[in-house]
Amino acid sequence: MQKSQLESILRYMLQIKENILLAPFTTLGIGGRARYFAEAKAMDEMVQALRFAGEKRLPVHIMGRGSNVLVSDDGFDGLVLLNRISGIKHAKDGDKAIIVAGAGEDWQNLVDFAVANGFAGVETLSGIPGSVGGAPIQNIGAYGQEASHVIKEVIVYDTERGKVVRLGRAECDFGYRKSIFNAKHPGRYVVLEVIFELKAGGEPTLLYQDLKLHFANKPKPGLEDVHLAVLEIRAKKGMVIHPDFESYKSAGSFFKNPVVSKDIFDKAKDAIGEGNGKWFWPQADGKIKVSAAKLIESSGFPKGFKFGNAGISPKHSLSLINLGGAKASEIIELAKKIFSGVKDKFGISIEPEVQLVGFKESPFKQI
After folding, report:
1. pLDDT for the residue 365
2. Domain identity same for 223 and 303
3. Residue 184 domain-assigned?
4. 241 within domain boundaries
5. Is residue 305 part of a domain?
6. Is 353 tagged catalytic?
7. pLDDT at position 364, please?
8. How far apart are CA 314 and CA 304, in angstroms?
9. Same domain, 222 and 271
């Protein structure tokens, strides 16, 4: 079969389209056009699309629910592949519950499934927008739980070896909001399925102050109680993208919480004071994780701050939002102002958590 014939067949099977606007596929509602665009609903389709990109030597961006990305106004000069590999299966092994979920499955669906079946381990990860495939890439975490705590294996397509492989938890090299997928080998592996190991009949995690206060003087909560409480807490911060809750056009938390040395932390603490609520967390290695939201507000960028058509959420200072008609360039300029403000006042660099797509280089490189 000639190369041109193969391309024609693949394009027909996968409906590979050209010049597709990406803004509607992102929660920020921002982004230019993709040179090529396809939607894969099965592993075979995903592999075929990746091989198509390889044949044409195209860069590839895998998109889940578009909840953690900022796409350039210039779009993406390659193939954007929408991952819609869905499905959730499970089996019990004693007190362990093994769940296999497609990478394109909505993350909240997996949390709902686990809680409904009494499987502990992801109940405080409720309300995090995105897909199952994004969980190992970002090592998502909230309220005392992280995806890495419960991921057993990740099934991926290795673009270098051209085949599907299984990576165990240790091989994923998980860290704070990072993994082998976004740090050591970005772009090499495409997540197809994720295998979780949860605790059947386990107790909910109650580590964070917000949750402890929520259940103070109340009966001992179950998984469902904690699950709903986290949704309620996150909704108050405008961080739940759901028709039942008020939300904004955002990409979730734009910046990561920085981890700094004790000397740097002490200087920041002297400038800020104790304040209200917990805004720092000592780490096992002696360093301190600091609330990026606290640093941002203390640098003169309050909730509700506006910059053209971009702004900071009135409910959470880590969330940069599209106020209507914003371009990626406006979000970036606002982010750079915040970055510089925090760096100038505290000497701390806050790294973006949002994935920047279609940018030739990091907009923060020269700051």
Report:
1. 73
2. no
3. yes
4. no
5. yes
6. yes
7. 79
8. 4
9. no
Percent helix, strand and coil across the chain, each to the nearest 5 = 30, 25, 40
* Span 156-189, pLDDT tens digits: 999 999 899 999 999 999 998 899 999 999 989 9
Q: What is the pLDDT of residue 307?
A: 96
Please tell me whether residues 265 and 314 are part of one structural domain: yes
Catalytic status, residue 193: no
CATH code of 28's domain = 3.30.43.10
pLDDT above 60 for 1: no
Please report whether residue 364 resides in a domain.
no
pLDDT tens track for 45-65: 998 899 889 889 999 999 999
Containing structural domain, residue 316: 259-357
pLDDT attached to residue 236: 79
Query: Which residue in the list 250, 253, 298, 319 is annotated as catalytic?
Result: 253
Tell me if residue 72 is catalytic.
no
Residue that finishes a domain, picked among 236, 268, 296: 236
Number of domains in the chain: 3
Residue 250, pLDDT score: 92
**Which residue do the tokens 């190992």 mark?**
136
Sequence-ordered list of residues with C-beta below 8 angstroms from that of 5, at least 6 positions apart, any chain: none
Q: Which of 33, 65, 84, 177 is catalytic?
A: 177
